[in-house]
Amino acid sequence: xxxxxxxxxxxxANKERILNVCRRCAEEYQKGNDVVVVLSAMGKxxxxxxxxxxxxxxxxxxxxxxxxLTTGEQTSVALxxxxxxxxxxxxxxxxAFQVSMHxxxxxxxxxxxxxxxxxxxxxxxxxxxxxxxxxxxxxxxGDYTTLGRGGSDTTAVALAAALKADACExxxxxxxxxxxxxxxxxKARKMEEITYDEMLDLATLGAGVLHNRSVELAKKxxxxxxxxxxLTNEEGTVVKEVVKVERMLVSGVACDKNCAKISVIxxxxxxxxxxxxxxxxxxxxxxxxxxxxxxxxxxxxxxxxTVTGDNADDAIHVIEESKxxxxxxxxxxxxxxxxxxxxxxxxxxxxGVAAKMFECLYNSNINIKMISTxxxxxxxxxxxxxxxxxxxxxxxxxxxxxx
Length: 403
Ligand code: ADP
Ligand code: ASP
Ligand code: MG
Hints:
alpha/beta, globular, binds adenosine-5'-diphosphate, binds magnesium ion
């Protein structure tokens, strides 16, 4: 069997944890299996590197940021290879160059395009455990890129697909995927299984337990994932195509605090206003999420929308620069907002989910700033300070609380 195992930051945070990872992998290796291990940077190292960068230059270039951040994962794999040596197990560490993990050129948010498997296969044939840096790739300019925060999950799934692995296991600091972040909702329940689609929605809407692109790739290439704890032997959650349990109305609740709301007030109420605004943002590569257009009055209208928190200042800059062309009266930026979403394939055939969500927020006296829905989710934008209460209320009203 060929097994890809990925360990996140907390799982390799110090010497003991690294040795723990090595022991777990060694067990698999000693059964005669081929083992490929993807590691994240140790503990909070990525955050610390970002802090160091901002300290020297508040506006660092994305290329240099990636050059810096990729050192985190490189540290982990090299140390782990040294740790394996102390256990008498042959291992080799490889970074994105040595493997050749090709990505698009977008620094800080690159997508994997192709992975060469030759070098990894060669090392496996020598009966070595192969340690691969997560989160990083190389682009056509021969530079390092990174895959976005949490991207090591995607490295693992992409490797599992490229190597046609028999299993792909994501080890983290919780023992599976829960109906909501167990750190926020104490009564959250661990799921035995979840479909790719539901997991993709939860991940996209903020459930950081898996990088959303990793789920996308897993679905595309049919890689069955297991999410489990690196510190216990609990079973974990299987992410796959179909699940045996009956569909609940709502399968999970997620939140995303990395949001900002921008209101463009007093745009002229005629064809083309929305196009010009969102085209300007698209040209600047800024993704817009929720959108709200007000009823027009006195030949003007307002448009409010959300972007990710990191894009807020850029978005404001772009709109201010295009003020003449857009012709609005006022621009407002609201930070400190968050999205709370309920997700579930079951709601497709059940009206009233949105109403129920609004009811529980009303009962908790939480004001809704924006709403967006799809067939299988309801999302509201609220004050960031209310997130915990909103998540718990939604979790309870949809019957997800642990008995
Ligand atoms: P790693 O460093 O191992 O990749 P992450 O911090 O990226 O770990 O992801 C694990 C964290 O995801 C958990 O500690 C938990 O707080 C959070 N999380 C958010 N939503 C969920 C969920 N639905 N189920 C489990 N964990 C969740
Ligand atoms: N080290 C990176 C991060 O903190 C990638 C990862 O952990 O998956 O975002
Ligand atoms: Mg992660």
